[in-house]
Amino acid sequence: MSRKQFFKRVKGHVSQYEDWYYLVEEGGVTFVEHEWDHVTVNGLAQNTGTQRYTVDEFLAGDHYYGAQAALKEALRQ
């Protein structure tokens, strides 16, 4: 298995919303893995998780444009 980060997004006034995007190759299949850790500071709530998509699903879906552009660039290399 190979897992390579191709994009990271951090936002919020204390960088409390983090998203990581990886291009993963496993068993001859290539897919995108989106991992996130979002913390609501004033409510002290946390939302974390991981979601996998096929490359086509990720590019066609309603995902952050910067991550889609970075994926296209990673696939060209």
Shape: elongated
Q: What is the succession of H and E elements?
A: EEEEHH
Count, helices: 2
- State the major sheet: 4 strands, antiparallel
Count of β-strands: 4
Question: Cα distance, first to last residue?
Answer: 18 Å
Main structural class: alpha+beta
Our Rg estimate from Cα atoms comes to: 14 Å
How many domain modules?
1
Unreliable runs, pLDDT <50, ≥5 residues?
none
Beta-strand portion reads over 45%
Strand order of the largest sheet: 1-2-3-4
* Mean residue pLDDT: 94
Task: Describe the 3D structure.
- With 77 residues, this protein is of the alpha+beta class.
- The chain is built from two helices and four strands; from the N terminus they run ββββαα.
- It has a four-stranded antiparallel beta sheet.
- A hairpin with a 2-residue loop joins strand 2 and strand 3 (29-40).
- It starts with a strand and ends with a helix.
List the helices and strands and how they pair.
Elements: E1 2-11, E2 17-26, E3 29-40, E4 45-54, H1 55-60, H2 65-76
Antiparallel strand pairs: 1-2, 2-3, 3-4
Gist of the model:
The chain contains two helices and four strands.
Descriptive key words:
elongated, single chain, 77 residues, 23% helix, four-stranded antiparallel sheet, alpha+beta
